[in-house]
């Protein structure tokens, strides 16, 4: 058994790794590397999750022993990951596996197949290797996707339809996927494409066939995974479990006419609230609660889906965390007059501001009731402590949001970095604190964890919000579709504070002038997309080295979070805190031409 110490490497923004992603040109050389990795794989300890730094160190060692250069590092890391997961993938029934194929394996010219909601429909064609692989996998029982990377992959995995992934992709894509696979513990193997040109590329076809056919008895040792807990967090927020844990006060009459049900305003209001509660999101907060509880109970749920058996009172407390989160989103969308959430119109744009405010209030009340009515099962002291911590988080969140709104509407736009960080600590950290505290308190007294919970959540929350600010300048596929949205909305971000502190003279005056632009410019319906303003602000931010300073602050708060985690016992809880730091503060590598993600498993949106 080989143990490799994790290198102490400063964690900075990830540089380009294109020079590390070459595939050996000849089949003989590829087989040589595969053989060396297979021999090395016999020494791996599969009882502990594999981390990327350790995986990289292993790959470097294999390449050094073979006298090969670092250009094959990415290729070798994929092979070692394959060896780590091979037996666990092999033991999973074919019907519980997902087979992913890239669209670039199909013939670019003259391909007659069409894309449907599940990817490329090519069973009837047979003109290229895609059809051969797809048909073979489907005949065995696999669920198959041929696509450019689609959100349905995340839904399939977390919803519980598959337990393992067999994939084919270029190293550009596999690099992005590897982080998610290692963090979440999804048993996965992959075959790298021979090139990354994304057009009529090729692959070692017999190697793909070998991976599809993997089938063995369950291995004696399985790796701990958070997937089971992620699924449990999703399940409690979706029907029918949602209505079982939080029974609806009003049910649709079985014999009533549809119009009669539609005309009942009480039923409509309840339906809007439950529908919103079941919408979108990654359920990261209830996940934290369930995972923290499980960590203090021996982390049994990480080893098997059969061990995910939480008492209803624990599940209701986790669901309460989600109701508070969803309520805050409703109110936040109103206060910022956001247009979209989870890919559809925000509640206040669908039903009006008054109804949306009331739905948010309803969800807050529902959250408190989910905990308070379990006081007999939880114990009065436990229920009271959790409700008290939830109320404290509610107040802090309102204080932070209130400070932001008052600044936004004030004429004086002065803002220091300390001011921004105080707002962040109030707006973002309480959600992490409430979720983590609730899970630990459900498991027992938390006296020895109380300070840790507050400090860890503050550092993690602040770092997450700074990352969110940086992400705003790239836009995203969730809610911020336009880069620089925070500037257009007039929010007091840390980036803005750093710019105001770093600029002097005419440059600072220009930035203040942009902040004082006519309010109608940011309250239009829909809000104006002022590309010129965003471009001018970006130039001033770059002049003040804002982005670099923000990156350094993220790493500072990350280091503080990790230092706190280092001292936590038991080991299962410490590992959970490390996992939260890695997933919440995940930094994607720089985008390279024509790449798409194989699978997206981010914890926090």
Q: What key attributes describe this structure?
A:
56% helix; 605 residues; 8 strands; single chain; 4-stranded parallel sheet; mainly alpha; disordered C terminus; 26 helices; two-stranded antiparallel sheet; disordered N terminus; Farnesyl Diphosphate Synthase
Put simply, the count of helices is: 26
Largest sheet, in brief, is: 4 strands, parallel
Extract low-pLDDT stretches.
Answer: 1-14, 256-260, 476-480, 590-605
Q: Mean pLDDT across all residues, rounded?
A: 84
Radius of gyration: 25 Å
- Strands ordered across the widest β-sheet: 4-1-5-6
Strand content: 5-15%
Structural class: mainly alpha
Q: How many strand segments?
A: 8
- Roughly how much helix do the residues carry, as a percent range? 55-70%
User: In whole angstroms, how far apart are the ends?
Assistant: 38 Å
The geometry reads as globular
Describe this structure as you would to a colleague:
The protein is mainly alpha-helical. Among the domains are: 18-213, no CATH class; 224-378, Farnesyl Diphosphate Synthase (Orthogonal Bundle). Helix content is 56%, strand content 5%. It contains 26 helices and eight strands. The protein has a four-stranded parallel sheet with strand order 4-1-5-6, with helices on both faces. A hairpin with a 2-residue loop joins β7 and β8 (344-345). α13 (312-336) runs antiparallel to α19 (429-443), α17 runs antiparallel to α19 and α23 runs antiparallel to α24 (531-543). The radius of gyration is 25 Å and the shape is globular. The two termini are 38 Å apart. The model is unreliable at 1-14, 256-260, 476-480 and 590-605 (pLDDT under 50).
